[in-house]
Specification:
The structure is a single chain. The chain has a single domain, classed as Tubulin/FtsZ, C-terminal domain (60s Ribosomal Protein L30, Chain: A, 2-Layer Sandwich), CATH 3.30.1330. Helix content is 21%, strand content 42%. It is built from 3 helices and 5 strands; from the N terminus they run E-H-H-E-H-E-E-E. Strands 1, 2, 3, 4 and 5 form a 5-stranded mixed β-sheet that branches. A hairpin with a 7-residue loop joins strand 4 (89-92) and strand 5 (100-113). The longest helix is centred in the first third of the chain and has 15 residues, at 21-35. It starts with a strand and ends with a strand.
Protein backbone atom coordinates (compact mmCIF):
# COMPACT_ATOMS: atom_id res chain seq x y z
CA UNK A 1 0.00 0.00 0.00
CA UNK A 2 1.65 3.22 -1.19
CA UNK A 3 0.46 6.37 0.54
CA UNK A 4 0.86 9.76 -1.11
CA UNK A 5 0.82 12.79 1.19
CA UNK A 6 -1.64 15.34 -0.07
CA UNK A 7 -2.49 17.85 2.62
CA UNK A 8 -1.07 19.32 5.82
CA UNK A 9 -3.28 21.58 7.90
CA UNK A 10 -2.66 23.22 11.27
CA UNK A 11 -5.19 24.31 13.85
CA UNK A 12 -5.47 25.83 17.28
CA UNK A 13 -8.14 25.25 19.90
CA UNK A 14 -8.70 26.42 23.43
CA UNK A 15 -10.77 26.05 26.54
CA UNK A 16 -10.71 29.37 28.35
CA UNK A 17 -12.40 28.43 31.63
CA UNK A 18 -12.64 24.72 32.34
CA UNK A 19 -9.09 23.47 31.72
CA UNK A 20 -10.61 20.75 29.53
CA UNK A 21 -7.79 19.32 27.42
CA UNK A 22 -10.10 17.17 25.31
CA UNK A 23 -12.29 20.16 24.44
CA UNK A 24 -9.23 22.19 23.42
CA UNK A 25 -7.92 19.28 21.32
CA UNK A 26 -11.26 18.79 19.56
CA UNK A 27 -11.43 22.50 18.78
CA UNK A 28 -7.88 22.43 17.37
CA UNK A 29 -8.76 19.51 15.07
CA UNK A 30 -11.99 21.22 14.04
CA UNK A 31 -10.07 24.41 13.27
CA UNK A 32 -7.55 22.53 11.14
CA UNK A 33 -10.10 20.60 9.10
CA UNK A 34 -12.06 23.76 8.38
CA UNK A 35 -8.96 25.44 6.93
CA UNK A 36 -8.50 22.80 4.27
CA UNK A 37 -10.42 22.03 1.15
CA UNK A 38 -9.95 18.65 -0.43
CA UNK A 39 -11.37 19.55 -3.82
CA UNK A 40 -8.13 18.23 -5.30
CA UNK A 41 -9.39 14.69 -4.64
CA UNK A 42 -11.93 15.11 -7.42
CA UNK A 43 -9.19 16.32 -9.78
CA UNK A 44 -7.18 13.20 -8.94
CA UNK A 45 -10.20 11.01 -9.64
CA UNK A 46 -10.53 9.87 -6.02
CA UNK A 47 -14.13 9.33 -5.01
CA UNK A 48 -13.65 6.66 -2.34
CA UNK A 49 -12.97 8.61 0.87
CA UNK A 50 -12.15 5.30 2.53
CA UNK A 51 -8.76 5.61 0.81
CA UNK A 52 -7.87 8.60 2.96
CA UNK A 53 -5.41 8.17 5.81
CA UNK A 54 -5.59 10.96 8.37
CA UNK A 55 -2.74 11.28 10.85
CA UNK A 56 -3.29 13.77 13.65
CA UNK A 57 -0.79 15.12 16.14
CA UNK A 58 -2.14 17.09 19.10
CA UNK A 59 0.09 19.11 21.43
CA UNK A 60 -1.26 19.96 24.90
CA UNK A 61 0.39 20.58 28.27
CA UNK A 62 -1.12 17.42 29.80
CA UNK A 63 -1.39 14.76 27.06
CA UNK A 64 -2.75 12.18 29.50
CA UNK A 65 -5.86 14.36 30.02
CA UNK A 66 -7.03 14.06 26.38
CA UNK A 67 -9.67 11.43 25.61
CA UNK A 68 -8.44 10.17 22.22
CA UNK A 69 -11.74 8.57 21.17
CA UNK A 70 -13.55 11.90 21.63
CA UNK A 71 -11.05 13.68 19.39
CA UNK A 72 -11.16 11.01 16.68
CA UNK A 73 -14.97 10.96 16.70
CA UNK A 74 -15.17 14.31 14.89
CA UNK A 75 -13.45 12.97 11.77
CA UNK A 76 -16.13 11.65 9.41
CA UNK A 77 -14.04 9.64 6.91
CA UNK A 78 -10.90 7.63 6.33
CA UNK A 79 -8.47 5.66 8.42
CA UNK A 80 -7.35 7.76 11.37
CA UNK A 81 -4.48 7.77 13.80
CA UNK A 82 -3.81 10.10 16.70
CA UNK A 83 -0.62 11.00 18.52
CA UNK A 84 -0.83 13.24 21.59
CA UNK A 85 2.36 15.01 22.70
CA UNK A 86 3.37 17.56 25.30
CA UNK A 87 3.08 21.15 24.05
CA UNK A 88 0.47 23.86 23.76
CA UNK A 89 -0.12 26.33 26.59
CA UNK A 90 -1.66 26.48 30.05
CA UNK A 91 -2.04 30.06 31.24
CA UNK A 92 -3.68 31.55 34.33
CA UNK A 93 -6.66 33.51 33.03
CA UNK A 94 -6.70 36.06 35.84
CA UNK A 95 -9.95 35.02 37.50
CA UNK A 96 -10.39 34.37 41.20
CA UNK A 97 -10.04 31.63 42.24
CA UNK A 98 -7.25 31.07 39.75
CA UNK A 99 -8.46 29.29 36.65
CA UNK A 100 -6.44 28.25 33.60
CA UNK A 101 -6.90 28.64 29.88
CA UNK A 102 -5.68 25.66 27.85
CA UNK A 103 -4.41 25.95 24.29
CA UNK A 104 -3.98 22.92 22.01
CA UNK A 105 -2.26 22.74 18.64
CA UNK A 106 -3.20 20.24 15.94
CA UNK A 107 -1.40 19.09 12.82
CA UNK A 108 -3.40 17.00 10.37
CA UNK A 109 -1.70 15.11 7.58
CA UNK A 110 -3.93 13.58 4.90
CA UNK A 111 -2.56 10.88 2.65
CA UNK A 112 -4.25 8.91 -0.11
CA UNK A 113 -3.86 5.21 -0.79
CA UNK A 114 -2.65 4.99 -4.38
CA UNK A 115 -3.46 1.29 -4.73
Amino acid sequence: MALKRCLLELGIGMDLEGEDYTKAARRAVDDAIHHGSMLFLRALGISDLGKLHIDITIAVPKPQEVVASDVLSILPVGHTSLKIVRGGLRVANGSRPVNYAVVANAAILVSVNEA
